[in-house]
Design a protein that fits this description.
Elements lengths: L3 H15 L4 E6 L11 H8 L4 E7 L2 E6 L3 E6 L4 E5 L9 E7 L4 E6 L5 E6 L3 H6 L5 H4 L3 H8 L6 H6 L9 H11 L12 H23 L35 E5 L2 E5 L8 H8 L1
Antiparallel strand pairs: 1-6, 2-3, 3-4, 4-8, 5-7, 6-7, 9-10
Helix pairs in contact: 1-8, 5-8, 7-8
The chain binds a DNA duplex through α7.
Length: 281
DNA sequence: CGACGCACCTGTGCGC
DNA sequence: TGCGCACAGGTGCGTC
């Protein structure tokens, strides 16, 4: 569920919460969330008594650094989140928890357990960062850079943008919104985009990330948009199939690409036979 | 290399 | 009211 803006929102919240904090005790349940060699026992042992030294986010990865060279890599998957406990009782679907010296408890909550927690040496953070493409928010993005990343790939632009080694942090919503901004059909072969379209896409990527982040930052706490069923849909086309395109009024339609729903405007985001032919050739 | 299905998981909402 | 199914903002594997 979380994409770059949600993960950034979490990173900022965790930075505030953990500033100057020490972990007295840590627990993780035996669930598929624990990856690699991490077990409930090694999770507890690696984090007990550690003081927090920093957090960085790259793409959808959260990397927490502690003293003594210890690190915690946290990927939220579809439904993961960190939250500070309000009462004594742990939240539903809590999978791990950090008991801070000042009495607060930080819970890792993950309904579907598609997220990941892994104890890794801080020294390995660089390798994780290196395995991902540039992060639009951290590293910036412009037309030239995006063109270089897309390269000559004839794959659908949507598939390319979802590839975390091309750009880090984009997910189905952000890609959907960015393509709408740039008026580019999700199935357009990446190598058929004009320089103007690539420029518009770079702009669209940054615009949708900043917009989504701003919506999240209205909440001090870690709250997901989907938590608030009362809140209006903040997106232009995502979640709006059948509604009128905000630009031209034509109903938003959807197709499936790489197994993901891809809402788009059939008029603003055209795909021609010639595009497909040029992409293959 | 790339497209595709499937697996990993649970919860929710919708149609019958 | 209940059941079954499709679907959900992610990733990684095996297979053709």
């Amino acid at each position: 569920m979380p994409e770059l803006p949600e993960v950034e929102h979490q990173a900022r919240a965790l930075r505030r919460i953990l500033e100057g904090a020490t972990i007295d005790r840590a627990e993780a349940d035996r669930t598929p969330v624990l990856k690699g060699t991490t077990t409930p026992a090694s999770f507890a042992a690696a984090l007990a008594g550690r003081s927090f030294e920093g957090i960085e986010r790259v793409g959808k990865q959260l990397l927490l650094a502690f003293d003594g060279g210890a690190g915690l890599a946290s990927h939220l998957g579809m439904t993961g989140r960190w939250r500070v406990r309000a009462g004594d009782e742990g939240p539903r679907h809590g999978r791990a928890r950090l008991f801070l010296r000042d009495g607060r408890v930080l819970d890792y909550v993950d309904v579907r357990m598609l997220g990941r927690l892994e104890i890794v040496p801080r020294a390995s953070f660089a390798a994780i960062v290196a395995s991902l493409g540039p992060d639009p928010l951290r590293d910036g993005l412009d037309a030239e850079r995006l063109a270089a990343r897309i390269g000559g790939s004839g794959r659908p632009i949507k598939t390319v943008l979802l590839d975390q080694t091309v750009l880090a942090g984009l997910g189905n919503i952000q890609v959907t919104e960015a393509l709408f901004h740039a008026r580019v059909h999700p199935e357009r072969p990446a190598n058929t985009l004009t320089p103007a379209e690539i420029a518009a896409l770079a702009e669209g990527i940054l615009a949708t990330i900043l917009h989504t982040l701003a919506v999240h930052e209205r909440d001090e706490e870690i709250v997901y948009l989907s938590d608030r069923t009362d809140a209006p849909n903040p997106f232009l086309v995502y979640g709006r199939v059948g509604e009128a395109c905000p630009r031209c009024g034509k109903p938003i339609t959807t197709i499936t690409i790489a197994g993901r729903t891809s809402p788009h405007c059939p008029r603003c985001q055209r795909l021609t036979r010639s595009d497909l032919r040029r992409g293959r050739g």
